[in-house]
Write a structure and sequence with these properties.
The two termini are 25 Å apart. This protein is 58% helix and 0% strand. By secondary structure, it is mainly alpha-helical. The chain is globular. The longest helix is centred in the middle third of the chain and has 19 residues.
Length: 143
C-alpha cells in the first residue's frame, strides 16, 4: 500500500498496545510533546559516552526522555508517580553533571535548559494525575 497509510505495529508491540491504559496513552502524548520542546532537545537521546567519557563519573544510571518513553510503551511504569520520578531524574542528572562546570558556556546552557523543564513538566504531570485520579481516564481507554 502506498500513500499516507500508517503501518500497524507487529508482534509484541501490538499486544502491549492493546493492554495499555488510559493514563499511559496520555503520558505517551505528553512525552511526545515534551521531546519536541526546544529546551528539551539535549535530553531526548542518551548521552554519547564517546563524546563525554567522564559522564558516568557523575551519573551512574543515565536516563533520557526517549528511554522513559520506551519504558512507558513497554508497560514498565506503574503510574504517573513513577513517570514523574523518572522525568525528575533526567533533570537531576543534568544538574549533577553540569552544575560543577556551570561557568562553562555549554554547561550553563544545559543546566538552564534542564531547570527550565521543571515547571512545564510539573504542569503536564499535574493534569495527567488529576485526570487519572478523578477517574476520567478509564482502564482500556484508547484515543
Amino acid at each position: 500500500m502506498k500513500g499516507n497509510s500508517k503501518r500497524l505495529p507487529r508482534g509484541p508491540l501490538l499486544q502491549l498496545d492493546e493492554q495499555r491504559t488510559g493514563w499511559e496513552y496520555m503520558a505517551d502524548e505528553i512525552l511526545t510533546k515534551v521531546k519536541e520542546w526546544k529546551r528539551a532537545k539535549r535530553f531526548v537521546e542518551p548521552v554519547d559516552m564517546r563524546r563525554v567519557p567522564n559522564y558516568k563519573e557523575y551519573v551512574k544510571k543515565p536516563v533520557c526522555l526517549s528511554e522513559v518513553q520506551a519504558r512507558l510503551r513497554r508497560g514498565e511504569l506503574s503510574g504517573p508517580e513513577e513517570l514523574a520520578s523518572l522525568l525528575e531524574e533526567v533533570i537531576a542528572q543534568a544538574e549533577a553533571f553540569h552544575a560543577p562546570r556551570s561557568n562553562a558556556l555549554r554547561s550553563s546552557e544545559a543546566l538552564r535548559e534542564a531547570r527550565s523543564l521543571r515547571k512545564p513538566l510539573a504542569s503536564e504531570l499535574h493534569a495527567l494525575r488529576s485526570t487519572w485520579e478523578d477517574g476520567r481516564v478509564e482502564e482500556g481507554f484508547a484515543p
